[in-house]
Specification:
This protein is mostly helical and 185 residues long. It is built from seven helices and four strands, in the order ααββαααββαα. A two-stranded antiparallel sheet has the order 1-2. The chain has a two-stranded antiparallel sheet with strand order 3-4. α1 runs antiparallel to α5, α3 packs parallel to α5 and α3 runs antiparallel to α6. The longest helix has 25 residues. The two termini are 29 Å apart.
């Protein structure tokens, strides 16, 4: 049974899950050939690894801007900054990802608002929805891994070797580990 007290929610675990994914991504990007980072894929040439990386960064930056104590704004994933230079320069993207890891680690020690309002647009209706930093960290971990899975598929099309755990959600990894343990028992 879940306890709703703030003691039961461990921000450190959520930050660790996000930083693990981001560190996997930066390790991958360091080894990725620059031309593959910027290469277009698909019939309409709209799929680009760099765009997926920039998209991941945009989402983290939206949350970090919101939790900044000097920012009274609501969380808004729709109106992101979309720095196109991060789509072209994987080293700049890596540096930004590492800065995000540092900022996420500060969430573990700093006092911050745990509840936030998030702007959501649906069918042209703009509304504010209550959420929490913890819930958004859960979302961002899944969102990041999802885009990493797409990045892996694109990179593999160009013959780039991708780790078996890259772009695989931690829950799937735990499930596979349990299956392996059951087979060997």
């Amino acid at each position: 049974m879940l306890n709703s007290s703030s003691d039961s929610i461990n921000c450190a675990d959520l930050v660790a899950e996000n930083t693990h994914a981001i560190n996997q991504l930066t390790d991958f990007l360091v080894a990725l050939p620059a031309q593959v980072y910027r290469q277009t894929f698909g019939a309409r040439k709209q799929h680009v690894i760099g765009k997926h990386v920039r998209h991941i960064i945009d989402h983290y930056m939206a949350l970090l801007r919101t939790v900044d104590e000097q920012s009274p704004e609501s969380l808004d994933y729709e109106n992101r900054q979309r720095e196109e230079s991060l789509e072209l320069d994987q080293h700049a993207a890596c540096n930004r990802l590492l800065a995000i890891v540092s900022s996420l680690c500060q969430l573990m020690t700093a006092r911050h608002r745990t509840s936030v309002l998030m702007r959501h647009v649906s069918d042209d209706h703009d509304r504010l929805v209550s959420t929490s930093i913890d819930r958004e960290l859960v979302f961002l971990a899944s969102h990041t891994v999802h885009h990493m899975a797409i990045i892996a598929m694109l990179a593999e099309q160009e013959g780039v070797e991708v780790s078996e755990e890259f772009g695989v959600h931690p829950s799937t990894l735990r499930h596979l580990q349990q299956l392996n343990m059951a087979k060997s028992a």
